[in-house]
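Re: your question from the hallway

Yes, I did run it. Sequences:
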Amino acid sequence: MSDDSYISIQNVQKYFGSFCAIENISMDIAHGEFFSLLGASGCGKTTLLRMLAGFESPTKGEIFIDNQPMSDVPPHYRPVNMVFQSYAIFPHLNVHDNIAYGLRKRKLPKAKVTEMVDEMLNLISLPDYGNRKANELSGGQRQRIALARALILRPKVLLLDEPLGALDKQLREQMQLELRQLQRTVGITFVFVTHDQEEAMTLSDRIAVMADGEVMQLDTPIGLYERPVNRKVASFIGTMNFFDGVVADEAGETLKIEAQGLGPITAPANPSNKAGFYKGDKVQVAIRPEKLVLSAQKPDAAFAASGRVQNMAYLGERSHYLIEMDGLDKHVAVSSQNLVPGASLFEMGSDVWINWQSDAVVVLERN
Amino acid sequence: MSTDSYINRPNRPLQVYALIFLIVLYLPILFLPLFSFNDSIYVRFPMQGFTVQWYYDLMARSAVWAALMNSVKVGVAVSIVSTVLGIFAAKAITRYRFFGKEPIVIFIMLPLVVPLIIFGVALLVLFAQLLGVPLSLYTVAFGHLILCIPFSTAVLMPRFEGFDPAIEEASADLGENAWWTFWRVTFPMILPGVVASLLLCFTVSFDEFIMAFFLTGTDATLPMYIWGQLRFPQQFPSVLALSSLVIIGSFIIVLLGLWINRDADMTKTKAGTDA
Amino acid sequence: MTDQSALARPAAQTPPQVNWFSRKIHKSETFRAYAVLSPALLFLGFAILIPFAILVVLSFWTPVGFDFNREFTLKNYRDIMERPIYGTLLWRSLWISTMATVFTVLLCYPMAYYVAFHVHRNKMVWIVLMTLPFWTSYLLRVFAWKVVLGYEGVINSGLIWVGWIEEPLKFLLYSPSAVIITLAHAWAAFAILPLYVSLEKIDKSLLEAATDLGDGPMRRFFRITLPLSLPGVISASILIFIPTTGDYITPALLGGPNGMMIGNLIQMQFGPTNNWPMGAALAIVLMLTIAAICAAFILITFFVRKRIT
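Structure:
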């Protein structure tokens, strides 16, 4: 465990009957971090969050928050608060009473409570909303009140269970910015659950990508995108082209690979891959669509291959191409930015060349 | 919703049928109040003229008042106890996954279906044989609890199903223990169901006759009193008057209960099909 | 994922003190569920299971004056098998409640169908209207039928008054048909609700699809609506059949000697006849018969449905 670890999840397993929701997860989350659990539905991310909140207890393993083991601590004693997916605003209470809900135990004078609530209402930019009824609020307002209700207690950790999932696209993007801003202002550790990779990338300091109850990769957004550890992560975050290949030679920091459809290429020996690759290993070569460059003429580049435009979609700021290549039974996706108006568009059926830099190539295990 | 889609287009014969059905459903019951104002001790056409004499007769009888008080006592006690137990049961059934849930739900709902005569005699044997308890209003109330707990549970389950479990979790998350969470969140949310359960259980107990028949001691409940009067033809008109009052009272209480609880759709719960 | 977290954590600070019970409550959902269920479950367990056990034991005894001979004997059951009165009454009870069940379901089905498919606004009002009488006293509803069907009752005196008949119709009161009519009326709500629920659940687009594929209203009903509402028909049938078989108020008030049912016999054993062990044995036989018939019914419908689908 690292020294600055604030939440430490150690060998946690969770079974519902015979169904395994969490395989065996260990991870550390630092103080003040905006941390995301990212994965498709059913990957165990919500279960993990609910274990942090105390609504589920681990079948095995232990969770520490600020050096305290948590497994015997019921939810109402935990120093964490949660923003629920449905917001769970108390429908029979008004906004003020919703936000002040958790303050009962502190036995503060009424004026002090009102002052604290008003402060929170200002923080979430909903001043003078105290007397509103819960059913008079829009989705975005409910979301903010759920946040205020949790933050007023100054939790050590704030847990957010897909809090933006119920909002429409525009509002969601606005709330993403506000959420990040708010987290910097209050300085509380956020653990955020989402299935939206773009949202996770926008908000997080670090992201744990989960699938089938396991953590596939835990990294910064840049790390996840540029150095995915396996095909699942690579295709979950953004789009990726995969080519089968065999390691022809390993020489220090670079690998020589014979890749199907691309010919002999070199690639950095991926440092995020624990297992090194050796001569004769069957591997997968992955390249992002935007790292492939199209040209009509044979380019003056170290690595290039030729093909035909099979399909093309113009999206305004960029265009997407599907390139048919000799010796390859699937199409290669290329995304190119439309920098010059009208220029550099390739017609369907035209012959093109693609080229790329050696360090754009990611080498993965083949399975 | 469009009311004139092909499948849903009005069906005249069915409308007529529905109307006749409702009339037949209510008509026999409505004859009771009708004849209770008839100035004759015979219940037959042609009617003889309007009178409220039978109601006056009724008021003058202390046995009626005593039976009424007995039924009210039993009804109030039974409705409170069964509603409290029903809250717990409905909460557990709707909120938790646990081993043996299906058979337990069936067991709890069983008294709604099993012929009450069987509970009546079984409890009679329990009290008289094993416990040696004399029959009294307590034994009647005990029997009614068996019937009212499933009623209360069935009324409250849609209430629990009708609100997001995350609301209770949010309360725990904000620092309240189970006790405070119940009083600050759960209870206000299910309050209409609780009131409905109290009213409906009161009515069920107040009107219950079969178990009371076996379990009543010297203090008669109102249905027992009516049963006793049925043997005497000259009492018929006053029984009609009393029955009319009981039926109208029941209608009012039940309608009130259903109206208070109107936003919980009782046909959408599992209880409707499980039992 | 960091590998360091697998390393041993330094001895943790002591957790907040929590006792055994609340730890259990927090950790096990099943424990929590049973803790919450326990008041109702304990009461019903005590109030249902123990009396039944005693009933079973009692049925193997014989009466001696006001006390019992506690020697184990099958005499009561042998009597039930051998003396025709018991068998006759049991058969009659089953026949009467079967008829009542069939009538109730047949009569309620169109009503439930109407509310499910043709009522668009205020469905709840209709459901309340249909189930409201059910909440009022069973005794009084039966009593109302006595007033209607009686020798000098509403129907007879009304028909004589308008001059359609000279003599009161005798078959109305004190007959099995009077019992069947009354039972069907009294238990209508028990049939309506499950029928309505199963009909309401049917996706309307299935009916439109059937029409689109060429079925007329009749074929559509028999090929789509009826099979899909079968679960409702089954639960309605069981919900009416079970309680009516054991009824004794209706036959007592309206049945006369030919309309007596097994429930009356049981009641008599605990009342005037004062033969409790026999009453207990009859109650047990009644329960076992009902259980057997319901099991058979459910099994048959299960296999029939399996063959259809």
